[in-house]
Amino acid sequence: MQRKPTIGLLTSFLGGNYLGEMMNSIQRAALQNDARLVAIRTAGKKFDCPIALDYVDGWIILNNAATDSYIQQLSNEWNKPIVGVAKDLDALDVKAQTVICDNEGGIMAAVRHLYEHGHRSIGFVGHLALDDMKYRLNGYKKGLEACGLRFDPHFVIDPDDLSVDGGRRAAERIAQAGFPFRAVVVCTDMMAIGMIKRFEELGVRIPEDMAIIGFDNTIAARSQRSGLSSIDQNIVRKGQLAVELLLSQINNPADSIPSSIHRIECTLIARGTCGCSTHLERETTTKQILEDHRDDKKRVTQLGVHYEFNKFILNYNIKQLKNLSWALAPHFQWGCLGTWNFDASPGENVSLTELYHFQRDEQRLHAGSMPVETFPPLQLIESIQKEEDSEMIYIIPYRTEPDNWSVLAAGTRLSDTVENMDDYMSVVHYLDLIGNTLDKQALLDEVREQGMQYRQIAEQLEIVSRTTNDGIWDWDLVTGEVAWNQRFYDLLQCADAQTLDYFVHSDDEAYYKRALSAHINEHVPFSVDVRLRKHSGEYVWTAISGEALHDSSGTAIRMVGSVRDITERKQSEEKMRFLAYHDTLTGLMNRRRFFEEVSSATAHPDQPFALIVLDLDHFKKMNDSFGHHMGDRLLQLVAAGLKELVREGDYIARFGGDEFVVLYRFRHIEEIESFTCAFATYLSALIFDEGVNLTISASAGISLFPRDGTDADSLFKKADIAMYHVKQTGKNHFKIFSEQMIEQRMWRLNLERELKQAVLGDEFVLHYQPQIDMATGQLYGFEALLRWNSPTLGCISPMTFIPLAEETGLIVPIGEWVLREACSQNARWLAAGHRPLKLSVNISGRQLKQADFIESVKSIVNETRMDPNYLCFEITESTVIDDLDYTISLLRDLERIGIQIAMDDFGTGYSSLSMLRKLPLNSLKIDKSFIQELSCERQDIDIVKAIISISNSLDLRIVAEGVEQAEQYKLLQELGCHYMQGFYISQPLPAEQIESFLYSRT
Q1: Alpha-helix residue ranges (DSSP H) falling in 404-550
Q2: Mean model confidence pLDDT for the chain
Q3: Hey, which of 16-30, 340-354, 976-990 has the most confident mean pLDDT?
Q4: For 224-324, where are the alpha helices, taking DSSP H only?
Q5: Number of DSSP helices (H) and strands (E) in the chain, helices first
Q6: Helices (DSSP H) in 778-852: which residue ranges?
Q7: What is the pLDDT of residues 803-837, one digit of tens each?
């Protein structure tokens, strides 16, 4: 019979999420290509033993399953073809093929996906000791760069572990850091699952508070309740390609195949944890979970068998494989055990202590010694098997001495492992346990041989405690005697040592006793966090762990362990819990906690409440004008005021910025009005500690439960719509939601669409309002005013569409059109023979912030041949305050061109005398609100008089706008106003009517 090519597989473990699926794909590929597979489990140890070397034709190495020096030996000394999977072999100077997934591309896709969800702070979690993880870190950096995000090394978390525990540790570190990012790419699904579990324990919602994408797309990811979004690295194709590449080298040894890297494309599978979950996806996830667990009854039975086998093997002293046939016979043809032989002749270092054929019940004991390179002895095995063939061999090496290995091997048909994969995953679990038990036996034998006694172990713990500040306890379970080291006495400040349950806090006692009983009776690891009472009566948080020693009958006779003061850690966890649910600046609830309270309140439809969304008016301007420290102080004072006004059972939260939300319970609707009025009164009377007195106001939107919705999202949405309505209609007020607001919002959205069409469709025109020199009565200039006559909506007021244009950014192209059209019209008037007149154009803050604004102005001036000395730009106080230094620099650039600057609507904002002195202004325009009452209000006359006086002292010209009556005109002349405009002279006119006006004033 022709010998089949034999593939050796070095893998840290035979099962598990990623390695188990990888193993499965390699087994299927080997079966398809009619090859034998020898899988060696290295258990994460520094593996360098040439087991089975003589008859393995080539090796597949998964991840870091073998040392670099051993891989170099395989290639350079023994000339074995090698294919590395997820292992970078380039740096080892070996002839090898490497199969890896496109780690960088996969992670870049994940970063881009989170960016598209709106995240701008994205973290990375991975164990960077592995080659794959380093590639994934590079992909993370490239992904950030591609999205225009800055790489922050503090956002990279390495928990030194790829498992669920590593993920839990990473989540802890993120929480301790105060959640510096709200989205994270995680290098393995198991770490991602661990993070999700720990975050959920901390009250962090996935994906609302933390979006997560894993890597591997394992069964565990697909089975997650919320559906773990993950990068699918196409494990099936990886295993198939690795086998094909290796067999190509084995079958064509004469061909010189250069070392190369083969990348498998990765695919992002978006599910719930990244924020992509929809009803359909949840349904798909549910179907997948049902499919993955369709054999639940069978799995439960398997778990029962696993449990019984675990209990059996952990206390079993393995002497003969034959005694394990009840567990192994259904799955294996044969098993053999080789132990390291220190007395054998050179080259025969493994003694075949047992070879047992499970089906034929044929056993051979002490069948001789052999080199480890020839283990397991296939010729001897084939003589027992007759016509059968073992195409799948599992090998479990274990150490008995440093650098010396003993070996357990078992063989079966490859087709059986592929066709009954679930069963063989169970068997792999058995083999792992048997290997661990053999390891344990070897260690126990070593302890006995060296005569190490239990007391010596305690003494070693005592030595360790001197460097770790741990307390040590020693408990004789037979006599009840207890001994402590000095550190334990110091911790509890007690004179007598007693059993720990005497000191345990009553609330922790049941938990402590359950853990202790589970350890003694079921060998569950003993590690608990409990409070212990000090001599003073004060309690201290401690972490207690220990290990029980059993006699030959399995009875626990003694325990030794350690205790550590973890009070600071617990305080840190408490702080993290507070930070997870509260705003750090004000101490109020944050969004996550508030949502929980609202959701809880909606469970009681008979208890109405109002959801009030409060937003401070002009907060950004105040923040920019007086500094962030004053802004923070204002937010703290607002929070304090709300706390005084709410009642027991109400809740307050700060959602960020200047947005506050109140859950206010009421019986009568008038109570809500009283609350909002009281809050407005509180704001109006605010005086800062620094003695600064500002006019503070707020806009509030209100939704009512259950009238406006029975869930938190609906109530928030409608309260937000009401607040937005208040902002649009003057601010400093409150509104209760009504359905008409939705109609108004839809109208506004429609208006926005029409406005965009107007920009493209040339629907704007300019009207020009004359400006008069009040000293001479002569025409001084015009202000260009924008008008919009929509073909579908009719004439739209500038008061309606200009704020919308500002908000949407459309003001930039509109403003550029206004400037070009006004300058062009001026050129047409000059061409008609009219004298040059001053032309005023309004410029928005959005325009000033454009990087190319100055160049755009120069281009338009040159293109239209406009004399810049006759051009004036009107800006508002709010535009200046947004960024004073930048605005001053830009206005000086305009001044150098020759353009004059006027401050529009003066007196309605936050301008100060010092700011006016800094700005390169030419004139001030008094807001029409002061002009309208000029004839009857003495206060307005005094204000206008003061403005004119200030402007004269600063050598600024004054323009009064909104002059409609002769009396107003006369008063302004008497006060010394320089220029005016208003209906008293003329309303704004289209360009063609200005021609007549010009002739009439000539």
Answers
A1: 414-419, 421-450, 454-468, 486-492, 506-522
A2: 83
A3: 976-990
A4: 235-251, 279-292, 296-314
A5: 35, 38
A6: 798-808, 811-831, 845-848
A7: 888 888 889 999 999 999 999 999 999 998 889 99
Question: In Å, what is the CA distance from 361 to each residue of 323, 333, 390, 563?
Answer: 11, 10, 17, 51
Model confidence at 297: pLDDT above 60: no
CB 285 within 8 A of CB 272: yes
Question: Sign of torsion, CA 276 282 287 291?
Answer: positive
561, 458 Cβ separation under 8 angstroms: no
* Matching residue, tokens 């206390």: 315
Catalogue the E-assigned strands of 666-721.
Answer: 698-705
- Distance (Å, rounded) from C-alpha 125 to C-alpha 118? 20
Give the pLDDT of residue 246.
92
Question: 18-22, 423-427, 810-814 — which is least confidently predicted?
Answer: 423-427
CA distance linking residue 444 with residue 318, whole number of Å: 13
- Tally the C-alpha atoms within 13 A of residue 610's C-alpha that lie toward its C-beta: 25
Tokens 């559906």 sit on residue: 227
Terminal-residue alpha carbon distance, the chain: 118
Distance CA 847, CA 876 (A): 12
- In terms of average pLDDT, the best of 40-49, 148-157, 553-562, 624-633 is 148-157
Secondary-structure breakdown of the chain: helix, strand, coil percentages, each rounded to the nearest 5: 45, 25, 30
3-class DSSP state of 505: coil
**Three-state secondary structure along 117-149?**
CCCCCEEEECCCCCHHHHHHHHHHHHHHHHCCC
What stretch of H or E contains 110? helix 103-116
**Amino acid 400: pLDDT:** 57
Residue with tokens 């054929």: 357
Encoded tokens for 86 = 């997820």
CA nearest neighbour of 964 among 994, 949, 985: 985
Q: How far apart are CA 908 and CA 660, in angstroms?
A: 27
Rounded Cα distance between 127 and 131, Å, is 10
* DSSP code, position 380: H
Q: What is the mean pLDDT of residues 250-279?
A: 81
Residues 866, 823 contacting (CB under 8 angstroms): yes
Of 173-187, 401-415, 587-601, 781-795, which gets the smallest average pLDDT? 401-415
The pLDDT tens digits for 391-412 are: 888 888 876 555 567 788 888 8
> What pLDDT is attached to residue 700?
93
Backbone angles phi, psi at 111, to 5 degrees: -60, -45
Query: Taking a C-beta distance cutoff of 8 angstroms, is the pair 873, 902 a contact?
Result: yes
Distances (CA, A) of 970 to 317, 906, 975: 114, 21, 9
Task: Write out the two tokens for 613.
Answer: 């969304």
Is the peptide bond prior to 397 cis by the omega test (within 30 degrees of 0)? Answer: no
* Mean predicted confidence (pLDDT) in 862-883: 87
Tokens linked to 698: 């707020």
Collect contacts of 526-533 with beta carbons under 8 A, ≥24 apart: 526/559, 526/561, 529/566, 529/570, 530/504, 530/505, 531/504, 531/505, 531/507, 532/491, 532/492, 532/500, 532/503, 532/504, 532/505, 532/563, 533/492, 533/503, 533/504, 533/505
User: What single letter denotes the amino acid at residue 991?
Assistant: A
Average pLDDT for residues 470-485, to the nearest whole number?
86
Dihedral (C-alpha) 919, 921, 927, 933: value to the nearest 10 degrees?
A: 110
Strands 122-125 and 404-412: unpaired
Which amino acid, 129? A
Name the amino acid, one letter, at 30: A
Nearest-CA neighbor of 401 among 453, 354, 449? 449
pLDDT at 640: 93
How many residues appear in the chain? Answer: 1002
Residue 450 predicted with pLDDT over 50: no
110-131 confidence digits (pLDDT tens): 999 999 998 999 999 998 887 7
pLDDT band at 345 (very low <50, low <70, confident <90, very high): low
DSSP 8-state symbol, 589 = B
